[in-house]
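Action item from last meeting closed. Structure (493 res):
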């Protein structure tokens, strides 16, 4: 790709960007949220038309008419934002647009065979092919999204944050698949904010900043601090900044807490000023625990004690009034109103500071939101811009900003740094530390073990719907967390 340019209204998304990927090469495309990575790949995959520039595929000039045409030409893309048909089954989603047919009739047996084979590549051959995708967790939906890209044997595979919803175990399986594809000669463009992953699986890299190419080189010999400097235009000395904070009295207790299917009898205590990490594999019950606690799912039995008062059965509005705030892992369906503005999304649960006689004072609302946009480094034209127009990482910041604006005292954060670049992650980690220093209590669910070990005071590990071990962070390593997550923990602490 040479000299690619793309403008959206007043925003120049790409400015003379160039990138070259060889046959059988895994090439890291790195940059902050809003740097232009996803836009560049949408141009390559036919989802977006460039204003200028050229593309060559196998040495010949290539113009993509649309995503279907690009896929027929051997270019497949795994999107950061899940792009599935929720009412269709797993098998139907995997083969969507590539259905095997004969004489105009769908070959359902062949479809199941191809779907099973694609899932087997990722170690999920037991996933029910007939289950509607809407019934799956976000992590399993990500598996389906990845499996779909394997259909048709692509020449070029674009992976946009493929591990953002995966556990470490599934990420390892994906890395093995990437190596097999590389050996077959498939060219892979790998977009990730996890620079350790890029170092592990990629051979070369290109860095974008503000829609421009600012650096490229050999990944194995690259200095990660130097790459971060290229990304953000400054030095980021310590990603996992620890803000001194004390731990106070219990503010939230779960006693034999059980949902309809999961969790299964969870016991957990959260203290004021504590950052409590929760680790586990896909299906361990982490997300289900937060949903039931916040009132989104039904509680079957057990007790929820909030500020020493029994508050087991409730709904989200009551939880908000009690000072709880939930950041959902699924920002598109539960976290944000995509067709509304940044201002509306960020302030929707708390209009009081700028409401008078039942009316919203727009100027005050915009000033408040502008302040949050500055504090959280949200890249948007203005508070009135629709959230759907923002990058995934900036959407995540808006969802987090709403909890902070709401002044929640107990924050339930489900994969809060998903899709956020390394510079912004450092800001979020520091902010979480500052919130703990203010006495706020935080449950931090993450599949990325380094961040749990980097910022949490204590880590609870879940396995098959239960908490199997709870220990201070200094007593954990990545290996022992994984051992507990697969059911090899020695004792329940």
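Sequence:
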């Amino acid at each position: 790709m040479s000299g690619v340019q793309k403008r959206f209204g007043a925003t120049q998304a790409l400015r003379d960007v160039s990138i070259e990927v060889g046959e059988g090469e895994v090439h890291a495309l790195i940059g902050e949220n809003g740097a232009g990575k996803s836009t560049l790949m949408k141009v390559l995959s036919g989802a977006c038309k460039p204003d200028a520039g050229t593309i060559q595929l196998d040495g010949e000039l290539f113009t993509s008419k649309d995503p279907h045409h690009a896929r027929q030409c051997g270019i497949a893309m795994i999107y950061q934002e899940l792009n599935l048909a929720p009412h269709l089954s797993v098998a139907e989603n995997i083969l969507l647009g590539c259905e095997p047919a004969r004489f105009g009739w769908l070959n359902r047996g062949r479809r199941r065979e191809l779907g099973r084979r694609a899932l087997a590549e990722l170690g999920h051959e037991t996933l029910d092919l007939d289950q509607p995708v809407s019934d799956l967790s976000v992590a399993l939906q990500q598996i389906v999204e990845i499996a779909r890209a394997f259909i048709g044997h692509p020449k070029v595979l674009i992976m946009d944050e493929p591990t953002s919803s995966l556990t470490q175990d599934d990420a390892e399986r994906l890395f093995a698949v990437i190596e097999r594809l590389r050996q077959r000669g498939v060219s892979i463009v790998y977009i990730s904010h996890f620079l350790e992953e890029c170092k592990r699986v990629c051979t070369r890299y290109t860095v974008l900043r503000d829609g421009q190419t600012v650096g490229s080189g050999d990944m194995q010999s690259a200095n990660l601090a130097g790459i971060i400097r290229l990304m953000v235009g400054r030095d980021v000395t310590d990603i996992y900044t620890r803000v001194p904070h004390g731990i106070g009295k219990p503010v939230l207790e779960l006693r034999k807490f059980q949902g309809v299917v999961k969790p299964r009898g969870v016991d957990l205590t959260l203290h004021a000023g504590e950052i409590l990490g929760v680790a586990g594999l896909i299906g361990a019950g982490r997300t289900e625990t937060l949903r039931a606690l916040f009132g989104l799912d039904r509680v079957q039995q057990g007790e929820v004690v909030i500020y020493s008062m029994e508050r087991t059965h409730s709904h989200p509005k009551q939880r908000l009034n009690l000072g709880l705030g939930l950041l959902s892992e699924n920002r598109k369906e539960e976290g944000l109103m995509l067709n509304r503005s940044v201002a509306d999304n960020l302030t929707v649960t708390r209009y009081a500071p700028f409401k008078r006689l039942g009316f919203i004072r727009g100027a005050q609302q915009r000033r408040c939101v502008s302040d949050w946009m500055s504090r959280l480094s949200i890249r948007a034209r203005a508070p009135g811009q629709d959230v759907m127009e923002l990058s995934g990482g900036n959407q995540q910041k808006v969802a987090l900003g709403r909890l902070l604006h709401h002044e929640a005292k107990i924050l339930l954060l489900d994969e809060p740094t998903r899709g956020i670049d390394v510079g912004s992650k450092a800001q979020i980690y520091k902010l979480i530390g500052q919130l703990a220093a203010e006495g706020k209590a935080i449950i931090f669910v993450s599949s990325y073990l380094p961040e749990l070990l980097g910022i949490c005071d204590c880590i609870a590990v879940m396995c098959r719907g239960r908490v199997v071990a709870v220990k201070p962070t200094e007593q954990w390593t990545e290996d022992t967390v994984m051992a507990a997550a697969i059911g090899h923990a020695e004792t329940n602490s």
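Note appended to the action item: The CA atoms of residues 210 and 407 lie 32 Å apart.
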